Amino acid sequence: MRFGEHYEIVRSEADDWFDPYLATDTPLCVEPFAIWADTEDLWFGAHDHVLDFFAMVFDLVRESDGNTASLAWKKAQALMLFPEPAEFCLGVAAGSPNGNGAGKVLQEGMLEGVRTALGLGFDNVPHMEMLALFQGGMGLDRISDAVCNVAKSFFITYTQQVARRHNVPTETFRVRNATWDPATAMWRDAEVDLPANPYTSRRIPVLLVPKRFLRDIPVVTADGFWKFAWNGHAEELRTHFNYDIARHVDRREKAKLARQNPAIVAEYLTSLEHEDHPPYDVDRDPNLRTSWWERGGAIAATAKTSFVPEDPAQFPDFVGTVIDVFKRGVEREGEWQQLWHNNFAYGEKKVQMVFRACVKHYCKANDVAVAGEANAGRGPVDFEFGRGWMARSVVELKLVSNTRFWDGILAQTPEYAMAADVNIAYFVAVAFTDAEMADSLTAKVEKAARIASQRHNVEVRTVIVDARQRPSASKLKPPQEVRDELHRPDEDAAA
């Protein structure tokens, strides 16, 4: 469930925040360049706040004089440990907001970046991404983790404003890295009143982010710097670098280019300051980053009947019913569109996300709890029914176009079933083309299921979902034989 849905918020023009799905991270990240360019009162000082933090770290690393056993170095280490900020429900790596993140890896890379920058004569950096370029680049999610930690106090204030505007109930949480103290050069946790996220394994607060700060690809990249450097400084670079290998160069070579040419790095970052960097279009959602929950809900809403088993003997039929809701919605109710964007079918992981949302919506409507729903479509899922009993199923969803499609039905699905101690497993095949719906292929799928069932002593049931694009009803034409029948004289009339 989304934050706004859970707290029954009616949005107004003032609500520019992204509405996060609370049980799973959304694969978007906070882009530091977007914060740098923002002129609203609350955010105007946020980028300087981030740079002040790194100035503090620079001072500590300089004070340490390279001695990693010194107090100054250890303080810098502690400051540069950026745990995944679960409160935001964001991150490129799929999973629960309670994930541990890659804090240690980010810490080492950023510290090396600071040490490199000091060696090049920098007292601070104009943008924190410069540190990443000196190390050959870092993923957007890691940069996002850093900025969400350093500027967390701004996001706390922003979220509290939203909560007050809509009378959202809050609780007092101890927030890790709520702020940092320049006097002691230390992180400070704080007791803060924030809305709660009730859908995680441990109760945590929610922090909201303006939609305009979110992207799915970074602004600053090692590849972008490499191209910029060669486009504008080819002559001076040829002595040390071979442009002919540019398309195949690894991150170490790009880091070397950055370290040896810090002035070009600064020029690259300055050039980006004068360009527009549009946020990810959350509402249109071209890459299915945000709307999979609603798309699955639209499919589940087409269900004509509901079926909830009264005892475990009926459980396999219940799972089959849930899958059939997905199949019927896609094939007969026009919801194939939920699996397509601009005449392109979505990839397997995204189709699994929509299927998972469909399962969750159907179960919620029928008072069935789902545990491990992140596995729906790719492994074991537990269902808990109102009468107090639980049952586990294995549902594996694959696109027919997947190069490992046959591995899925012949090996992976029965293996998942045996590992989960499940006797009946479902294999859902999603087809997007005429060739994938050919009779010969569908027959082969059934044959593969029989082989897998016999060899592994597990019943593998198959469901083939025809997700081909359909023409609009207004464009449908009857076949020629139907037209001929219309114009053929009636035998009774002729007699």
Annotate the secondary structure layout.
Elements: H1 3-6, E1 29-30, H2 32-37, H3 46-64, H4 71-79, H5 103-119, H6 129-133, H7 140-150, H8 152-165, E2 171-181, E3 186-194, E4 196-197, E5 204-205, E6 214-215, H9 222-237, H10 251-260, H11 262-273, H12 292-300, H13 315-332, E7 340-341, E8 344-345, H14 348-365, E9 369-371, E10 378-384, E11 390-399, H15 405-419, E12 424-431, H16 439-456, E13 459-466, H17 480-487, H18 491-494
Parallel strand pairs: 11-12, 12-13
Antiparallel strand pairs: 1-6, 2-3, 4-5, 7-8, 9-10, 10-11
Helix pairs in contact: 3-4, 3-5, 9-10, 12-14, 13-14, 15-16
Explain what this protein looks like in three dimensions.
With 495 residues, the chain is an alpha+beta fold. It has 2 domains: 271 residues, no CATH class; 179 residues, no CATH class. It contains 18 helices and 13 strands. The strands form 5 sheets. It has a 5-stranded mixed β-sheet, sandwiched between helices. The protein has a two-stranded antiparallel ribbon with strand order 1-6. A two-stranded antiparallel ribbon has the order 2-3. The longest helix has 19 residues. The radius of gyration is 28 Å and the shape is globular. The mean pLDDT is 89.
